[in-house]
Design a protein that fits this description.
By secondary structure, this protein is an alpha/beta fold. The chain contains 14 helices and 10 strands.
Length: about 325
């Protein structure tokens, strides 16, 4: 893909498509000055596509849009376990992937990707109501029902509609950096970062007030990443014992408290690398990692690159 043209995004609307699932990628990636993307909404053929929940979609493009696209989103659709999409759709998705396009499914759109065989041997997820059906229909797919989204590189899947926002922001973060992703999240009034490993829903055994308290604790911690944040400090802020906090935090988010803090610190470091001229040593202190060596260690472990290389990637000309 040439750096001189925008990323090309196709949103493939299938029969029974769910309104929120269609709207999320169309809105997140819609063309604007701050977003180097071009979006085309398409169907199996141009014309009217009957959607779910009483809506229909007039699409201007057919499957030729998949030959044009760098990223193909497949929104969820009703009754995905009853039959596969039309053969032409399955073949077009496979061909797009072979050509180098990324395929991203929202909710039950994962069934369309599974029908191509591209999820065989890979981890994937879908809406929690359909995870067993996906596993039964496609036994070679490693279905994970306890995550918001799964990134397998060229093939990505997400759970229900809200996690489609998380997936889109995750893709933005990889394409354009943390600052652009956070800007898009503010525009959507959405959480700037929820890891793919976060649980799809809070188990019934976790009282609702406790879940709300932990959300407040996470928000509190995000404003204090440069300060010491130990398990004891976080538990004290939440008003529970460290043992209870740790156990319930994993139930709620899918990761330990200190894993979450480390990822938040790395994300803040990414944004500072993109938007400031601070040195690596200064940024390490700003985000609570102490030294540049410590920041480099965790940056490499989590992102597979160095702070300097990351800065060069997202600040052209540096």
């Amino acid at each position: 893909m040439s750096a001189s043209r925008p990323h090309r995004v196709a949103v493939l609307v299938l029969q029974g498509a769910k309104p929120l699932d269609v709207g999320i990628p169309a809105q997140v990636f819609t063309t604007r000055a701050s977003m180097p993307y071009e979006v085309r909404v398409c169907g199996a053929a141009p014309g009217l596509v009957t959607g779910g929940d009483g809506l229909a979609y007039a699409v201007a493009h057919g499957l030729e849009a998949l030959e044009w696209a760098d990223i193909v989103f497949v929104p969820g659709y009703r009754f995905p376990d009853r039959e596969d999409p039309p053969r032409a759709v399955v073949d077009a998705l496979f061909a797009a992937h072979e050509r180098g396009a990324r395929l991203a499914a929202i909710s039950t759109g994962a069934f369309a990707l599974a029908a191509t065989g591209l999820l065989d041997g890979r981890r994937a997820t879908t809406h929690w109501h359909y995870t067993r059906a996906l596993a039964a229909g496609y036994p070679l797919v490693q279905v994970d029902e306890n995550v918001l989204f799964v990134d397998e590189g060229s093939v990505l899947t997400s759970a229900g509609a809200a996690s489609g926002i998380d997936l889109c922001l995750h893709i933005l973060r990889g394409d354009l950096g943390v600052a652009a992703s956070n800007h898009a999240a503010r525009r959507l009034v959405a959480a700037p970062y929820r890891s793919g490993g976060q649980a799809q829903y809070v188990p019934r055994s976790v009282p609702e007030p406790l879940g709300e308290r932990f959300a407040d604790t996470r928000e509190w911690a995000l404003h204090r990443l440069g300060e010491p944040l130990t398990l004891d400090i976080l538990a004290r802020q939440a008003g529970v014992s460290p043992r209870t906090f740790s156990r319930r935090f994993v139930d709620e988010t899918g990761c330990t408290p200190m894993q979450w803090v480390m990822r938040a610190r790395i994300d803040l470091a990414r944004e500072l690398l993109e938007r400031s001229q601070r040195s690596v040593e200064q940024i390490a202190a700003d985000v609570g990692l102490g030294t540049g060596a410590n920041l480099r260690l965790h940056f490499q472990r989590i992102l597979g690159t160095t702070p300097s290389e990351y800065r060069r990637t997202f600040t052209p000309g540096e």
